[in-house]
Design a protein that fits this description.
The structure holds 2 protein chains of 2 kinds. Chain A is 78% helix and 0% strand. Chain A contains 14 helices and no strands. The radius of gyration of chain A is 24 Å and the shape is globular. Helices cover 73% and strands 3% of the residues of chain B. A two-stranded antiparallel ribbon of chain B has the order 1-2. Chain B starts with 6 loop residues before the first helix and ends with a helix. The chains are: A mainly alpha, B mainly alpha. Chains A and B meet through helix 1, helix 4, helix 5, helix 6 and helix 7 of A and helix 1, helix 4, helix 5, helix 7 and helix 9 of B.
Chain lengths: 280, 291
């Protein structure tokens, strides 16, 4: 084993401190509520050790018996997330293909328009949409949220899909065209399997956004289509004072699936962010 | 490059363009029309010119909201970029268990604003929260986010930085990784100190990524709503409102669609102003010399 000099040792030590700081910053808030969701009320704010407590499922039972709304909200979140993802990925794939394979002034202008439009803050469009959605009788439906969530991600989706499709050799679609495949068949049979990476990258963004979104859900849903974040916000604002334990249980249930998903899809998230933000 | 757009290309981009045009662009234009009218729920609009803008610009709460927004955005974006840059350089210098650590850093990206508010409120709950107790044991005053407006905004900033740091970090880290390592080797051979190589190599080559990250974060931080709404509700006494909260209250609580629409357009204009440089660059890149 090589002998460690003092400066090297110091550097290693500093590095460890850095790693510890990063881990604490990212994980303490998440870990604390996940752990506290298994604590009895009296242990949640106890001044004793954070880690020594008798774990209990009481908060989850209370959540189930008193906030049935929450599980209904989770189901709504799930439906809206799936719908928005399918819609956004589908239309982004088509547009990404067009922007990758065709070039014209008109198309360039429309691409510019796509990116430019991302500058408009979502809350601004709630003003005219709210009466229209009401008038169409679409208030408090999954449909509204699906369309809104998908729309706010098709710009990024198209840019990311275009970047990925650019990497697929054109010879492949030309060969398919020789064999008499239509444009749509080329997309479905040639591009789609090879652009799966990009589609996954776009999905990660839409899924995380749709699962967590608050503003549109807050404005456009009330009972039938209200999503899990909305129910949690009702728990925070409860008049009788906040029931921390139940709140922790709900937050943990809402968080865990998407956290697992993000960790699993880490590579695609990073690839999509760099393809979308740096190049687009 | 052909001048005419093939029909099949139009067909392929039309779903995206229809969604964007119908759900974002047309409504945004309509908001401008709304901002020139006096209107409310179930009431016919009547043209008032720029009266709504005058009304908004004459409202002390609007200026308070604007000031709060500017302060929070400035703090959030700059602290975030600084932390993100530090972390990106730290990662690039080699860290143990890199893949695992990367997953840990990304974790807050998965957290909803609602859950983040629950977490940080719990940590800073007066007297009993872990951070409040830590501050007390250090002899520091507690953070009274529910009563003291500046403390409330500090909490919002902290929460916002925590939520969005993964974004800034990833952009900067990816850019740092794309800097060829022989540049650093050459600098080392020339006897450059780490500080000199940072100043002469890292910083200039990271500048484009830094600018892009800054731009995206400025624009997105400017529309800040959920964190403030869920943390303070804009209170106490409307002192922690930001622009989006002001807009929401005008429209959906006071039914003043005209002033809300005017606020909305001011938000749009501010975002455009922030993005002007980026858009100009993008336009040049896409349309070449003709721009």
């Amino acid at each position: 084993m090589p002998k460690l000099s003092l400066p090297t040792l110091l550097r290693h030590l500093l590095k460890l401190v850095g790693v510890a700081a990063i881990v604490a910053w990212s994980l303490v808030p998440i870990g604390l509520i996940a752990m506290s969701s298994f604590k009895a009320d009296r242990d949640i704010f106890s001044t004793g050790s954070t880690f020594s407590f008798a774990p209990t499922l009481a908060n989850y039972q209370a959540l189930w018996s008193r906030w049935g709304d929450f599980f209904f909200g989770l189901w709504n979140s799930f439906l809206v997330t799936v719908g928005a993802t399918v819609l956004a990925v589908g239309v982004s794939l088509l547009a990404g293909f067009a922007y990758s394979r065709f070039a014209s002034k008109g198309l360039q202008a429309s691409a510019f328009f796509l990116i430019f439009i991302r500058l408009i803050p979502p809350i601004v469009i709630t003003l005219p949409l709210f009466p229209v959605v009401n008038w169409l009788g679409l208030n408090d439906t999954h449909f509204v949220l699906i369309v809104l969530y998908a729309t706010f991600f098709v710009s990024l989706g198209t840019v990311v899909m275009r970047t990925f499709i650019d990497q697929i050799p054109r010879e492949l679609d030309e060969a398919a065209m020789m064999d008499g495949a239509s444009q749509f068949q080329i997309i479905m049979r040639v591009i789609l399997p090879m652009a799966a990476q990009g589609m996954l990258a776009v999905s990660v963004f839409v899924i995380v956004y749709a699962w967590n979104e608050f503003l549109f859900a807050f404005i456009f849903t009330t009972t039938k289509a209200k999503t899990a974040p909305l129910v949690i916000s009702e728990m925070i604002g409860a008049v009788e004072g906040v029931e921390w334990g139940v709140l922790f249980a709900a937050s943990t249930v809402q968080l865990v699936p998407v956290l697992a998903f993000v960790i699993l899809m880490q590579k695609h998230l990073v690839a999509g962010l760099t393809a979308g933000a740096v190049k687009g | 490059m052909s001048a005419r757009t093939p029909l099949s290309a139009i067909a392929l981009v039309s779903p995206v363009q229809l969604m964007i045009g119908g759900i974002i662009f047309l409504p945004a234009i309509y908001v401008f029309w709304l901002s020139l009218n006096q209107s409310s729920f179930g009431q016919a609009a009547s043209f008032v010119g720029f009266a709504n803008y005058a009304k908004v610009l004459g409202d002390a709460y609007f200026w308070k909201a604007l000031l709060n927004t500017v302060i929070v955005v400035a703090v959030v974006v700059h602290v975030e970029l600084l932390l993100g840059l530090g972390m990106a350089l730290f990662f690039a210098s080699g860290v143990p268990l890199r893949a695992l650590l990367l997953a840990i850093v990304l974790a807050p990206y998965a957290v909803s604003e609602v859950s983040a508010v629950v977490m940080w409120r719990f940590l800073f709950e007066p007297d009993v929260g872990m951070m409040s107790r830590l501050l007390m044991s250090l002899g520091l005053p507690p953070i009274e986010w529910a009563v003291n407006p500046s403390h409330g905004l500090a909490m919002v900033s902290l929460l916002s930085i925590w939520l969005h740091l993964p974004f800034s970090f990833i952009i900067l880290y990816a850019a740092r990784l794309s800097i060829p390592s022989d540049l650093y080797e050459a600098a080392a051979i020339d006897g450059a100190s780490p500080w000199i190589s940072f100043r002469r190599i890292t910083l200039p080559l990271l500048m484009p990524a830094l600018l892009i990250a800054a731009l995206f974060r400025y624009i997105f931080a400017f529309r800040l709503f959920s964190e403030v709404w869920l943390m303070t509700g804009g209170g106490p006494a409307r002192s922690t409102e930001v622009m989006a909260v002001y807009l929401y209250l005008e429209a959906f609580r006071y039914n003043a669609f005209g002033p809300a629409a005017a606020t909305g357009w001011l938000l749009v204009l501010a975002s455009l102003l922030l993005a002007l440089f980026y858009l100009r660059g993008l336009y040049r890149e896409m349309f070449g010399k003709h721009a």
